[in-house]
Amino acid sequence: MHFENQPHIPPATPGGSTASFTSLDIPHHVKKHRGSYNCGRCGLPKKGHVCHLPPTSTTTTTPTQTPTDSSVSVSTSSSRPPPRQQYSNLRRALSFDDSDLRCDSPEVEIDESEMDLFGSGCGKLPVSCMWEIFRRLPPAGLLAAGSVCKGWRETARRLWRAAEELRLRVPPRSQPGFVGSVLQKCPGLSRLNLRLESDLDSTMFACIAFSCPNLEVIEISTSETAVNRITGDELGRFVADKRCLTSLKMEGCSNLGGFVLCSSSLSTLWLSDLYCLSKMVFNCPNLKEISLDFSRQENDSTDLIAMVDGLGRSCPRLQNVHVASVRLSHAAVLALTAANLRGLRMLSLVLGTEITDASVVAISQSYSKLELLDLSGSSISDSGIGMICNVFPGTLSRLLLALCPNITSSGIQFATAQLPLLELMDCGMTICDLSSQYPTSDESGDFELQTTFKNKLHLIYQKLIIKHSRLKKLSLWGCSGLDALYLNCPELIDLNLNSCKNLHPERVLLQCPSLESVHASGCHNLLIEGIQNQVSNNFAAMENQFPNKRLADGSKRVRVPQFLSQQPYDEDKKRRRIASRPCNVLVD
């Protein structure tokens, strides 16, 4: 018995999806069908025929997205949010959870009379199976499937038209019309995520604008070898033409030079790698979140004071503000506080070494309802932390103070004690070992330097004691000046101790029953073993959580159900205990 060779779809990438079909009842010498000419209900020829039989039940399919291992994928539903892109370098300093930007997609109706068309050339595979297979293919595989036969081409065409979100990787040697040929197949596309490994120029940008008239969300990330050549004028025209655009995120914006953005629909704006901007005009009355990440070059001539002043006057609805620049100063903070943004909830001013405790005073006087405050890389001290605790005890839940060398363990302990709603705290590189910053006497022989080092010995090794009922994430990466750590945080799930080289295993106590991950890269082996023993003991103790009681006759001890215990029992804690799993100590 001979069998017909079945079509094969090569994957677009090494991890791409493939589709193959097997059939055992198709002879080898069957003539190739170009389509069925008979009615699918009664079997009579279709030409001049009106079928008298009633149609059977209509098959309805709702396209949904299934994650694949390939670098490109198509999404056509909103049943669940997509996995976060690992390749994106855009910093999420403002929102630590993915925001759901999806909407329900319309169902795709497939008529019974079209089943013959879909089944031809593929072993009469049911249309529902064909749809499920095709929706799992990457874009390159779906393009290849559309060229196999008429039925496959029609299924692929319907799938392209139903797509609402597209995540596409553009290889370095792709043809100029590659992006346009893919986008033109998706007239209903509203969300676009591009990973560019080739340069982004005005031609590709115009192609995106022309092919996606109803675009709402666009995110463009670039690789290390790709160059973003978009200018400020081109970006301004793109934003002005897209009347439905609500979110714009773009990397590699070093060639903008200056821009004027006017949009009544834009609510989220992320621009990174900004450099030497001559002008920045924002006319976006509905803008709620903005993230401006400038380059780390010292010769950046951007006037941040004028930028912040104009931002406050033209965008009154701002809620989340993130600015990362080495040129941030106390004057820029004063310009921001003068804007009087009443709805501001998240403020992130990163890498501003000229931001001091006086800046904290200005922030606390103007914005008393902050939920997130990020002053990483600033020069604030424990006094500034005290002012933060006095103003935001009832609202602040996330505090990030990494790379602040003037902060000690006393300030960190005070913050955790005075902020009851705190859930996330980052104190990386705050308590550092000063001995690594000074050479030894054999190398220099400088008596004055030795005296300075001895005067600061009391700041080298510090202990940190934190007891908090709601803290979930704590980061102490690079705190080489810590030699003792005591944590009593029942809700803590993530602890970062990377490069805490001077912690002693016998001086580390972790009373954190919900702990799931401990990052200990760069720590010595004895500390890693001590942490592993503690977290394993905590997990074993949780297994034996029910009290024991003897039976009435005193024969043996049995576990008492929790509802018989006199202590109050929380249903949420019960669910967490049932779903608990051993803690992972991550070294690499």
Quick recap of the structure?
This protein is an alpha/beta fold and 588 residues long. The protein is built from 15 helices and 25 strands. Helix 2 (127-134) crosses helix 4 (150-162), helix 10 (357-366) packs parallel to helix 11 and helix 11 (382-391) packs parallel to helix 12 (409-418).
Describe it for me?
The chain is built from 15 helices and 25 strands. Helix content is 25%, strand content 18%. Residues 1-33, 56-121, 437-445, 447-458 and 562-569 have low confidence and may be disordered. It starts with 58 loop residues before the first strand and ends with a strand. By secondary structure, it is of the alpha/beta class. Helix 8 (304-314) runs parallel beside helix 9 and helix 9 packs parallel to helix 10 (357-366). The chain has helices at residues 115-119, 127-134, 139-145, 150-162, 178-183, 202-211, 232-241, 304-314, 330-338, 357-366, 382-391, 409-418, 447-455, 525-543, 571-578; strands at 59-61, 73-75, 108-110, 165-170, 191-196, 217-222, 247-250, 259-262, 268-274, 280-283, 289-294, 320-324, 346-350, 372-374, 398-400, 424-426, 462-467, 473-475, 482-488, 494-496, 508-511, 517-519, 548-550, 557-559, 584-586.
SSE layout and pairings?
Layout: E1 59-61, E2 73-75, E3 108-110, H1 115-119, H2 127-134, H3 139-145, H4 150-162, E4 165-170, H5 178-183, E5 191-196, H6 202-211, E6 217-222, H7 232-241, E7 247-250, E8 259-262, E9 268-274, E10 280-283, E11 289-294, H8 304-314, E12 320-324, H9 330-338, E13 346-350, H10 357-366, E14 372-374, H11 382-391, E15 398-400, H12 409-418, E16 424-426, H13 447-455, E17 462-467, E18 473-475, E19 482-488, E20 494-496, E21 508-511, E22 517-519, H14 525-543, E23 548-550, E24 557-559, H15 571-578, E25 584-586
Parallel strand pairs: 4-5, 5-6, 6-7, 7-9, 8-10, 9-11, 11-12, 12-13, 13-14, 14-15, 15-16, 16-18, 17-19, 18-20, 19-21, 20-22, 22-25
Antiparallel strand pairs: 1-3, 2-4, 23-24
